[in-house]
Each structure stands twice: as C-alpha cells, then as structure tokens.
Amino acid sequence: MKRLAILLGMLCTQAALAGDVTVEHAWMRATAPGQAVAGAFMDITSAADAKLVGASTPLAGTAQLHTMSMSQGMMDMHEVKDIPLPKGKTVKLAPGGLHVMLFDLKQPMKQGEVVPLTLDIVTAPGHHEKVEVKVEVRDLGGH
Ligand SMILES: [Cu+2]
Q: Which protein residues have their CB within 5 A of the ion that is ligand 1?
C-alpha cells in the first residue's frame, strides 16, 4: 500500500511538470536562398508564473528573444532578456511583436518542414524547464 502511494506521487509530479507549459501554433516563414535570419512565432501558455529566457535549435547558430515596438515612426526590433509568461495567460509571439529570432540559419527553410526548437523556461527561481517545440515552416508567398 505504501509502495503504491509513492508510485502515484511520482506519477502526479511528472504530469504536473509536463503540463506546466503548453506551446501551440509554432510557425515560421519559409526562407529565401541565402537568408540567414528569420523569426519564429508561437502561442505559449504556462500553468504557473514563468518566463521564457532562451531558445535554441540545431538548425541555427544562435537564437535570441526579440520584441518590436514603434520608435519615432519606425518599427524597432531589439533583444529582451526574458519574456514573462503570467500564470494561465496565453502569450502570443507574433509578427510585429515578440518573437524568437534565429540567426545563422544552416539551410533554407522550406514550406512543410518542421524545425525543432528547444525553449528554456524558468518556472521557479533557479529551475529551468526545457520545452521541445516543432516549428512548422509556412510559405506565405512573397518575401
Ligand atoms: Cu527579431
């Protein structure tokens, strides 16, 4: 009986960890030959207050967290050190706003391909959680 209780406790812990962060609608645009930089977009929902602090993919040299804002009538893009994920709220990374910027793309990204992206999310002080995301490459026509 005691053994069963321990086992159930372990299962519950694992389910809670795996269900902490949900990522949906991850996508990026197809890239032109020679294009080395592209943004990736997605909807992230965390069950607890957390923050996205980084991302990586084997298909790009580096990835940064970016935001866009209007500055003196121009769209200005710059790096942010983290993206807050308030409990239960869906944070949208979308064109014209927050995004994951991929640099030094190792190959052109074609429509229908899937780019594996690992998100580094801090769910509690000092506790990092890796979330694997499949980024769908879409061709929206025109560059
Ligand atoms: Cu950017």
A: 66, 77, 101
Distance between Cα 37 and ligand 1 center (Å): 8
Q: How far is the CA of 142 from the centre of ligand 1 (A)?
A: 19
pLDDT digits (tens, 9 = 90+) for 30-64: 999 889 999 999 999 999 999 999 999 999 999 99
Q: Is residue 9 part of a domain?
A: no
Which segments within the chain are labelled E, that is strand? 21-29, 38-46, 50-56, 60-71, 74-79, 83-85, 90-93, 99-105, 114-124, 127-138
Range of the domain at 77: 21-138
pTM exceeds cut of 0.85:
no
Supply the CATH number for residue 35's domain. Answer: 2.60.40.1890
